[in-house]
# Entry
Amino acid sequence: MVFIRLHFPLFPSQHLKISALKHLGLNPSRFFVTEAETLEEEISDVFKQWGFTENDISKIFKSLPSSRRMSQTLLQSKLQTVTDLGITSSHLTKIITYRPALLRSRIEGCWQRLQFLTTLFGSNEVFLKAVRRNPSLLTYNLDDKIRPVIRIYENFGLSRSDLVSMLLVRPEMISRNSVGDEKLDLIRRTKVEKGSRMYKYVVSLILVSRVETIREKVANLVQYGLMEDEVFQLFGRSPLVSTLSIDKVKRNMDFVIGTMKLSASVVLHKPSLLFLNLDTVIKPRFLLGETIEDMGLLPQFKVPAVFTALRMTEKRFAEHFINCHPENVRMSCWPSIEMPKALYLKRMQNVLESLQRVLNGNLSLINSLEHE
# Structure
């Protein structure tokens, strides 16, 4: 669409100009840039001055439409305030693009909150690291939000160092937490003692989670024959199990019990079976192990060696169980299973690189013949 600027000396106001164009049967939007469009363009220019890309600005406008109509002076002030904290330009663009709502929050003049947080985290560097993880720290109310949450965790026996380490990995601890008799009972049932290495993880994960969600995840494992207390104690030994989705746990458990023919209780001692990716690690490696066993090859990975094999890196697994065999043996066992994704991609990459080398060689040959 082509935009044309027209001058109507007899119509001094834009309203009259638009009316005249409509009377002539023309679309005014083709001839005039609206005030809103002009303001949006000016705001975009401010963002660009601070290092934001067109893509960043588009995301900000989409997530926070009101930012299109912000005062340029106010926007400059907010961006300058965040920068004055020690945030670099590259981190500033990431923070604002990730959390545009900061632009409608009151950041200026809250030095008491910033000073408290800097003291809490021990240094400005650690504080800035926490801000990059959770930009909303700059907007939380000190007396209504931050201080009460800190007291809750201190009452549970978490030291300041433990609290800081958890805030860095679980930034939602400030905004999402609740304490009640039910959650106290859930923590107690994990059998994790105060001062133990896993205590801070158990407390923080349970306090930020809904009771209903925790009970649903417990019931998901109980249906396979485990006792509730066993599941809670599993959460105590490996707290991150409680963060896995119900669907992922269900798929892994179905394969462990139905295909691998292992007892459900195996995950109590080997929780890695719940964390590993079923489609790219557990399934292809286990099926390869069955193929190796059927062919009478060594080494084989049966229980308990299978657990070690599943946790190996892709490179180490290939060296230990695949590359140790002659080429003809490797080619005869690969087609019988679905090749693990990472190894497949690597092999395809090697093929493409070989073709590229051949192509480059042919081009060099052609060039040399042309010069001759």
